[in-house]
Amino acid sequence: MKYLFFVQTDGRGHMTQAITLKERLEKSGHSIVGLVVGSDKRKKLPAFFTEQFTCPFFDLESPKFLIRKNGKGIRIVASFFYTIYRLPIYLSAIKKVKKIINDLQPDAIVNFYEPLAGNYYHVFKDKRPMFCLGHQFFINHPAFKNPEINFLNKIFFRLYNYLTAGSRATKIALSFTEELDLPRKNLFVCPPLIREAIKNSSSSNQNFILAYILVSGYSEEIIAWSQKHPDYQVEAFWDKHEQAETHFGNNLTFHYLNGQKFIERLSSCSSYVTTGGFDSVCEAAYLQKNILMIPAQNHFEQKSNAADAKRAGIAISAKHFDISLIADKQTKTHHLAALQAFKKWVDDYDEKIINILEGKEAKRI
Fold it and tell me: Is the pLDDT of residue 330 over 50?
């Protein structure tokens, strides 16, 4: 089959998912005929992502959340009005999507939480199957427990889910735990997409803590903590691309995001600290790491990820980068049984997503 990918490029997670699924589909004899990314023109797409695709590549401007001035959260209301203001640009992008699809003639669309794909289906009523992947769709499963957050943020999150997928799309809810499918809701629960490079890496516990931050505002908290705790070695990844490495004192190094280096450092760290992203937490859990999550302010998606990771027993969460919560290697933020169950869930059902995309999964329900 011929698949067209749509990828949201906020953070690293959806890009990593796309790379992993691309490799698995091609291994099964399918092809990726094109890649559409909804991007923020102010940000440079990382090489670890763009270098993995040789198919036609289309970079279109897409609705994005606005970051607070302190770099520690999102501005919900401002983001809404900014989207309205730039609506003509986004409508133009949707028309470009129609031309791309007409030119490439894919058999199916795979959407990694990019609203351009969902809105294209809402506007043009395309009959091709669309598969939407993300932990975000797990909020529609009864096993999900809502985090404490204001009502307005919840409404915006559910609206964003609808704009991304719609009612006809097959929703593939990535989950920390094995749960029942809900075929009547067109909702299928699958394990996270763990890269082969992670699965094949040799996990160890060296004497440093690894951090990854989606928004650079949290770097100040990491720097402050490292200055107060000079006996602890900390390495961190961020999206500042001015230089490959930035050093703060003798015990803290920030790296510009690099795929291979991230895998190497994640495999070797004693503990992992991050904002509320989903995929890197899954990779750390697969490697049986100690995990602390700090969801970005006003970010319902990240708060949901953190609450669900806590439900699954694989991580703890905090409001600030208090790395002391996991700095002691003897401190356990997880239950060993929960991490082992997570790894088994991933390994035992690794082909489930491919079966769904090929139309085979219905036979197993």
Answer: yes
pLDDT of residue 363: 41
The CATH number for 2-196+348-364, chosen from 1.25.40, 3.90.1070, 3.40.50, 1.50.10, is 3.40.50
Residues in Cβ contact with 133 at an 8 Å cutoff, skipping those fewer than 6 apart: 17, 21, 110, 111, 112, 113, 172, 174, 190, 193, 353
Map residue 247 onto helix, strand or coil. Answer: strand
* pTM for this model (two decimals): 0.90
Same fold, 2-196+348-364 and 197-345: yes
Whole-angstrom Cα distance, residue 46 to residue 87? 27
Look at phi and psi of residue 71 and say left if phi exceeds 0, alpha if psi is from -120 to 50, else beta. left
Query: From CA 277, how far away is CA 224, in angstroms rounded?
Result: 22
Phi-psi category of 211—alpha, beta or left, where left has phi over 0 and alpha has psi -120 to 50?
beta
Would you state the structure tokens that stand for residue 294, as one six-digit string? 């700090």
Joined tokens for residue 295: 């969801």
Could you give the dihedral angle defined by the CA atoms of residues 111, 31, 180 and 137, in that order, rounded to the nearest 10 degrees? Answer: -10
Domain boundaries, the chain: 2-196+348-364, 197-345
> Each residue of 4-61: pLDDT tens digit?
999 998 878 899 999 999 999 999 999 999 999 987 766 678 788 888 999 999 999 8
Q: Does domain 197-345 have CATH number 3.40.50.1820?
A: no
Which amino acid is located at 147 in the chain? Answer: P
